[in-house]
Amino acid sequence: MSSTTAEESDFDLSPERTTELAALADAAAAEAKRGWYEISSALTDKRGAADVDAIAIAFDYRLQERVDGNSNPVFHAAQLTPLAELPTSVADLWANVVGATASVPVRARLHDLLFTLGRQPKHKHAEQACRAYLEVGSGNWGSLYRVRTLARALDIARQMNRNDLADDAMKQIIANARESLDGVEWQPGVSLRLIGRLVEEKNPPTGVDDLLVEARARYAGDPYIEVDAAMLQRRLAKGDKDALGRIDREVVGIWTKAAEASAGLQKLGHLTKAVDYARDHGLTDLLAAATTALQAIGVDDLVSCA
User: Residue 69: its pLDDT value, please?
Assistant: First the structure.
């Protein structure tokens, strides 16, 4: 069976062959650190066998970057056959292999694909996928890949109304966010994605406010990132008018402060953002101050910094 077609194949589903395939998948996953594509790549030279190709296909699908609400479809097919169009024999093979694999990443992906396909017992595949994703998310994979696994774990838990699994997922997300914020490496794309997923919750867990305060302090040197964190605070505040007003004034302050520390076109850009935000949110006093500062930038200032 080709990776891009949905031709039906008769696979050997015997315990012996299933064990062999699971061992191949486990070996391929052993060195993976940056995503499921590494597992697929490790199986490349063995894909001449139709059943190995069918296993490798499971790791070719790309788990989509999460946006607000669940993305549909969850897995990006690219040039692959869409999941729903794959022959039943492939899902049968996955179901056999997932019961024999010892690898956490392999379990996470196969159980999730089977859950997405509605394979029965659906609730069991959902639970096993969620638990495996939590293990991957707390492990040593690349930080951005762990973000996706934890977000997916929480999504699955919510879809299945499993508050216990959702609580576990949120605890791990908080732990990873703190790890990112406290680490030496600059990782706003990790920490803010994790915190952003928590902000989307109907009832965000205790501690999200503190994480956002820490994020703003950590990334205060970059106004774009700090504003991103402030906007998450704004979403968290929801209908609290006092909090929203305070955050809006702080956003203008971030751009104004950044302008004071810069010159030329960069200063112009920061002040323009301050003016636009103040105008859009009815902050007349801050609008006046930012406009005055913007108008004070002379042509010579821009030319000298060009």
Answer: 55
